[in-house]
Specification:
By secondary structure, the chain is an alpha+beta fold. The protein folds into two domains: 224 residues, START domain (Alpha-D-Glucose-1,6-Bisphosphate, Chain A, domain 4, 2-Layer Sandwich); 69 residues, Rieske Iron-sulfur Protein (3-layer Sandwich). Bound molecules: FE2/S2 (inorganic) cluster (FES) and fe (ii) ion. Fe (ii) ion (FE2) binds next to helix 5 and helix 7.
């Protein structure tokens, strides 16, 4: 699956030369956006170009993909030795890291008398129940068993979802070799499919997020990969234009990959994790990469740059969660 979609993205990259024209077809950073050129159908207003049927079709295909039973718990950075409580797929869990740095996720209820384990101390990488001191670790005890966990260096995943053919590891899209990372986690009153549907609708971008996007043009749309040319705002009227693809490597994720222009190779992974019926966590990792000379300096001060990356992503998702929640409400006849 991963290799297949990787090939599609690679093909999109090579075909962009044909679709987008020469290198000058993209507006580089720092210039004011010139008037839109191109065929008449490409310059129609976004609301005319938007294709709800295509969005529905692409969503249906995305939801049929394998999931492997995995969902993203949180950013790797957010999970340390101290136990933390999560609600995932309608159950309460405790998550912590052992002394070797491996994350673990297990039921948040002690197998003795049910004490909540996110209040536990940790000794030698094991939880010590706050009520009677039972030690609980990666080997489990009776019916209390940790579930498979995976740390990919950016995100921590857990295999907890039933009804899917389990895979040994999460199904992921390719990532850049070096990147500057920022990850956000927000929850909304919606289902996972509403998060995915939002990312499969490129047409809302300019009018719904006017602070961030100046122009968007769909270059190519198959049911599996969307290729768009987007001008996003850097500062004030200064924009940069890039070509990017959107594809779904698995049923709860959409990945945007910049395939041409500034930051080519960068990806934004948007993951939808079921919390409970009608509530979903959106975890989005921005992995910015660049061949610009200054990028290596930026990597050295990643901790200082990260808050800006995350602030921008949060602003967009505050709005996109409203979109997802509205979609969910409409589906449930509760759109008053
Ligand atoms: S409830 Fe945990 S040891 Fe008793
Ligand atoms: Fe959006």
């Amino acid at each position: 699956m991963e290799a297949g979609l990787g090939a599609i993205v690679d093909r999109s990259l090579s075909e962009l030369g044909r679709v987008a024209g020469d290198e000058d077809g993209l507006m580089p950073m720092g210039r004011r956006l010139p008037p839109m050129e191109g065929p008449a159908e490409a310059t129609r207003p976004d609301w005319v170009q938007a294709d709800p049927q295509r969005i529905d079709r692409a969503l249906r295909r995305a939801l049929l993909r394998e999931g492997g039973g995995w969902c993203v718990v949180d950013a790797s950075r957010s999970i340390g030795p101290a136990p933390t409580r999560y609600v995932l797929d309608g159950k309460a869990w405790v998550c912590w890291r052992d002394d070797d740095g491996h994350p673990h996720l297990a039921p948040n209820s002690c197998p003795h008398m049910g004490a909540e384990l996110h209040c536990a101390k940790v000794e030698g990488g094991e939880l010590v129940c706050p009520w009677h001191g039972l030690k609980l670790g990666k080997k489990g005890r009776g019916t209390w068993q940790p579930v498979p966990c995976h740390d990919d260096g950016v995100l921590v995943w857990a295999r907890i979802l039933e009804g899917e053919t389990p895979t040994d590891a999460p199904i992921m899209a390719p990532r850049p070799k070096t990147f500057l990372e920022g990850t956000i986690r927000m929850t909304g009153r919606c289902d996972a499919q509403d998060i995915v549907a939002n990312r499969l609708d490129p047409w809302h971008g300019v009018h719904y997020h006017p602070h961030s996007f100046a122009r968007l043009r769909l270059l190519e749309a198959s049911d599996d990969v969307l290729t768009v040319r987007v001008a996003y705002k850097v500062v004030g009227p200064v924009c940069v234009e890039v070509d990017c693809t959107f594809h779904s490597p698995q049923r709860r994720a959409i990945v945007m990959t910049i395939v041409r222009g500034d930051g080519a190779g960068s990806v934004v992974e948007t993951h939808a994790t079921p919390v409970r019926p009608g509530e979903t966590a959106m975890v989005e990792a921005t992995l910015a990469s660049s061949d610009r000379e200054g990028f290596h300096h930026a990597l050295r001060i990643e901790r200082m740059v990260r808050p800006f990356v995350e602030k921008r992503a949060k602003r967009l998702w505050q709005e996109d969660l409203e979109y997802a929640e509205r979609r969910y409400a409409l589906r449930h006849g509760d759109a008053s």
